[in-house]
Amino acid sequence: MTQKTTEQTISVQQAIESRHSIRKFVQQPIDRQDLQKIFELVRLSPSAWNLQPWRFHVVTDVNLKEKLEEAAYGQKQVTSAPAVIVVTSDMEDVLANLRDTVHPGLSEEQKEKEVANLSAFFNGMSVEERGQWGLTQTNIAFGFLMTAVQGYGYASNPMLGFDQDKVKELLKLPEHVKFAGILPIGKPDGEGYPHHRFDFNKIVTFH
To answer: Which end of the chain is more exposed for a tag (fewer CB within 10 A), N or C?
Structure first.
């Protein structure tokens, strides 16, 4: 039976302070409404020129998760989680649909100028350079995603250890697509390790 959605969320501070990487999850499906609410928040993530290069592939199929686990070198959190989110960046799709990113409040002349400027800028890059640029923006959305997941009472575990070519093949993704990571999510079955982070003064310098 699918778990019922809940309207109750926690504060941003609580979500950040309580988040730990979880590798074992309760064997209970995530309600589709909760997933939709999470992504309604994540889609508000900021990006330069509002290009929004992020794309999210939500995997719940058991057989596909087993293949993803194999591509992730046998990491069991992939099949333990009721849902696995593969976060990608696709700048070639962005360039093919630039008008969709331009604010509707602009005049037609302003829209055309914006599209022309963006086209000239990104066409001066290689596909690889554009891909890396888009990935820096997609990583912003990845952070928003982990916070939103935690805010709705779920746990997650960001992963970069996987065979990217195999995952592209499994999800039928174009060669140019870049990966921000894989995020297994679900209700935690156990607690993660306590936070161990650098001291405030190690990472923050006031000028």
So the answer is: C
